[in-house]
Amino acid sequence: MGIVKYDQSGLEIIADRHGGLSLEHGFIESQIFQSDHPRKSLKFSAFCDGIFFSSFGQLMRSIDPEQPEMEREYASASIPYISDDAIKHSVTDILGEIEYQGGPVDLERICSALSISLNYSDQDIRDIDGIPVLGSANFTRKLITINAHGNRNRERFTLGHEIGHFHLKHGEYLSSETIVEKDLLIKETAQSLNYERLEYQANAFSSNLILPDGVFKRKTAEFRHLLEISDRGHGYVFVDDQPYNSMIYDQLLTSLSNYFEVSKQAVQIKLKNLGMLTDERKRNKRLPATQILDALSLDRK
User: Based on the domain organization, do 145 and 236 belong to the same domain?
Assistant: First the structure.
């Protein structure tokens, strides 16, 4: 059977996965009941004469077999694992295409290089649960739409995320895709559903795209020198609760944030992932998901 939600405003249809990417039991359950897995608003499902259709093209061809084919057919498959190194290599390739040397990565130019149409919308679009829809990708039309965020940093991360879906060839499994705030927190685990793996891969791609390793390391060294930060045996970049150390660390984050046009939270995560940060702040507790989203939202300008 198909899955839809509806209210007085009309229907919101939950499943738009190509026929080859089967709807997992866990995915269906997460759309109907409370679940640890994020709910995902998708685009199309239909049930007609005992047959489930996951695309409009399939439904139309069942009604009229002479209907011209509207989309490609896809073989049944699970989403393959892609290592972080492979994702970084993919990012390096695309940065090479635009001859990136430094500064904020020109994401619009990347869209042009990949022949992807880009549209910015000033509408505040929300799903049926009131959650902001940050952006969407239509793989058939090769179109990315970025919705109004009021936050330049998050718009850039969202655009990088959607570019990731295209460059990682997720169009083999999806005909369209939307991103909501919770998608920014998805991590890959052994229990990840297929669509979660797609979102994790797109997030990893975006993180590496907006903060390329080589330039990030070079600029960190430059700003570290300008701020007279030295390794006194505690680590390349060290911060604790002492006011002076906290102030200098914040200046480093601000400098990198401004240079790359990303959030300070994204810079801090990058420093940690590269093993460049020693954080001894006692108040540096693990934040709940809602606070992480606020931080990712990310240092409003």
Answer: no
pLDDT in tens, 228-254: 998 888 889 999 999 999 999 999 999
Which of 167, 188, 210 is at the close of a domain? 210
pLDDT tens, position by position, 122-174: 888 877 677 788 888 999 899 999 998 788 888 999 999 999 999 999 888 87
Which residues constitute the domain of residue 59?
4-63
Q: What is the pTM of this model?
A: 0.69
Residue 21 lies in a domain: yes
Q: Is residue 111 part of a domain?
A: yes
Please name the residues in contact with 255: beta carbons below 8 A apart, sequence gap of 6 or more.
223, 226, 227
